[in-house]
Structure formats: structure tokens, C-alpha cells
Amino acid sequence: MDLTNILAVSGKPDLNELISRTKNGAIVKNLVSGQKFPVFASSSISQLSEIRMFTTNDEKPLEEIFENIYNLLGAKPTDFDPKKAESATLFDLLAKVLPDYDTERVHASDAKKLFSWYNVLLNAGKLTPTEEETKEEAKEEPAEKPAAEKPAPKKAAPKKTAATKQAAPKATTQAKAAPKRTTTAKKAI
To answer: Residues 18, 3: contact at Cβ < 8 Å?
Structure first.
């Protein structure tokens, strides 16, 4: 799950996805309404990948917390409206997904925002595991071995005839792959 292009813009509801950068800011798309609009450099913009939540020992990135919520709820949205939920409901769920959250520095408004953002990202399809995460999970989980079976009898190799004994001529030229072009220049918003 990659949240680098997901932005929270102050004064704008919901979350937005970065579409392109401009000279004076960026063009973003609201993840709920799908409307595109400009955001200027003078606006307060936060990338979700940079936001962290206080714990008793350190800080946890939102990506990890969203992954915990996703796994706990089975890839389903919360069964309550986070904006209208009582503080006890919010903190009960938060304690399940982040047991060591700092009770003094994490407020009900933070929990409301966290679960609202989770629902928005889930509905927009932004919380699905990336290919790399899927590959890592496959490596971690041992492959199931089928029940003991008798090995299949080996077939005899086909007999070589005079026609198959002659080797095909080897190719002497090799195709060269074009080098990949990557662009890594990123401009800060």
C-alpha cells in the first residue's frame, strides 16, 4: 500500500490524490467526489505517507495502522460512521489496531480522522496490497505440500533418429535490450 500520492489539504474535505505538479502547486483529485482541482503552494498540504500517530514508545506511520485496520476488519469499512461515533467506540477500535497508542496525545478528533480516512481509502481502492507486499507474504507463508503421493512412472526418452541427430545451427547474433529510462526527479509541493 503506497500512500505517497495521497494528500490531505487543509480546508478541503476528504482525501485527494496527486494527479500532476504545476509551477505554483499541484492538480489533485478528490477521492470521494472524483473532482479535480488545483491546490496552490500556499495551502497546507500533508502527504499521508509522512503522517504518524503517537505511541507510548515512538510514532507509527499511518500506512502500518491502515494495514492493521484492513486486516482486523477483513478489508471491510468500519461498521460505524467515524464522524458521528462516540469517543469510546473510536478508542475501542483504536486499541485493537494500535494497542500502544499514547492516550494523552491521541485525541478523539485524531481517531475520527484516522477511521474516516481509512473508509475513504478503502472505498477508493487505495488500500489493496501492492505486488511487492503480496510477494513478501507468499515468501513468508510456506507452500502447502500435497499428501504423500507415489511418484509418477518416468517415461522413456524418445529414440533419436538420423533426422533428430543433426543439431540446428546456433544463432550468432543476440538481441540487445534497450536500456530502461527512469525518471526520478520529484518536485516538492
So the answer is: no
CA dihedral 82, 85, 87, 89 (to 10 degrees): -90
Phi, psi (rounded to 5 degrees) for 147:
-55, 150
Q: Band the pLDDT of 128: cuts 50, 70, 90.
A: confident
Per-residue b/e over 50-84, b at no fewer than 16 CB within 10 Å? ebebbbeeeebebbebbbebbeebeeebbeeebee
d(CA 16, CA 116): 13
- Integer-rounded Cα radius of gyration of the chain: 26
State in words which class domain 6-132 has. mainly alpha
**What amino acid is encoded at 112 in this protein?**
K
Domain residue ranges of the chain, discontinuous segments joined by +: 6-132
**pTM of the prediction?**
0.68
